[in-house]
Amino acid sequence: MIDWRIHSADVTESTNIDARKGGHGDVFTAKLQTKGRGRLDHKWLSPPNENLLVSIVLDVSGIDVAEVVALPLVAGLSVAEALSGFIQDVRIKWPNDVWVKGKKICGILCERNQDNVIVGIGINVKQKEFPPPIEKTATSLLLENAPEEFLEPQSVLQELLKKIEANYSQWKNGSFKKLHDRIASFDLLKGRDISVRQTDDDNDIVSGRCEGIAEDGSLIVGSTKIYAGEAHVMQ
Ligand code: BTN
Questions:
Q1: What pTM, to 2 d.p., does this model score?
Q2: Mean pLDDT over residues 214-231, rounded?
Q3: CA dihedral 47, 51, 57, 58 (to 10 degrees)
Q4: Can you tell me the distance from the alpha carbon of 34 to that of 18, in angstroms, rounded to the nearest whole number?
Q5: DSSP letter at 139?
Q6: Domain co-membership, 101 together with 175
Q7: Confidence at 9, pLDDT banded by 50, 70, 90
Q8: Is 43 in the pocket of ligand 1 (CB under 6 A)?
Q9: Which atom of ligand 1 is nearest to the CA of 106?
Q10: Structure-derived torsion over alpha carbons of residues 97, 29, 143, 85, reported in degrees to the nearest 10
């Protein structure tokens, strides 16, 4: 059992920054972030009080680096499993976005902090309208007709923490294989023609048919394994 300790702020710069002072089991939330951060130096913008903005601190001491790189996928799986309890057609878009019917509902930013990983998660809960350039590519639990009782960030958080707890403990016990099967069942990209910008390799682009997510957490495109990148489905 993880002894979750929830620290709730009304306004903060970024819950991922707050989480730097936390230890295993600390959970930082905010109603509004003034400097919300996304992957690849993007901003994460969210109107006040509408969405879940949370950073969860998990201990990864003693775990091989090769295993730690799979933790973002385990976080994505936890979100996908939690959201599947309220809405249909939830998918993981490698490396760790969660999408519903072709639109993004959740972004995850994992950052290493000494012996911990800070798992920063933004889930769109009650937002009805999104600004350009994401007005047609973002969605929320409200827009996907989730039941009323899950239209509060705090109730989504409770479901999410249950999934994170279960999946983190399996991951820590070395059961990534079992988790991998469940991750694969949510894979949005497998079987599609995609192009991926490799963010750890001079932004080289690899295009081809996606063969799915490998057991080491990489994405297989044609015969190439990609460890870090941004994927786009080709029309
Ligand atoms: C992405 O898709 O680019 C990742 C977005 C991650 C956003 C969350 S919101 C809570 C936490 N605090 C941040 O500043 N970022 C993450």
A1: 0.96
A2: 93
A3: -140
A4: 13
A5: -
A6: yes
A7: very high
A8: no
A9: 2
A10: 70
**Structural domain count, the chain:** 2
Find out whether the beta carbon of 109 lies less than 6 Å from any atom of ligand 1. Answer: yes
Most confident of 47-51, 201-205, 213-217: 47-51
Which residue, chain included where needed, has tokens 């600390």?
26
Cα dihedral across residues 201, 106, 78, 173: positive or negative: positive
| Residue 14 CA, ligand 1 centroid: distance in Å | 8
Question: What distance in angstroms lies between residue 16's CA and the mean position of ligand 1's atoms?
Answer: 8
For residue 53, the 8-state DSSP code is E
Domain match, 101 and 199 both: no
pLDDT in tens, 33-80: 999 999 988 999 999 999 999 999 999 998 888 888 889 999 999 999
The domain in which residue 108 lies consists of: 5-185
**169 and 72 in a common domain:** yes
Q: Which residues pair with 91 in a beta bridge?
A: 99
Same domain membership, residue 201 and residue 136 = no
Q: What does the block give as tokens for 25?
A: 């089991």
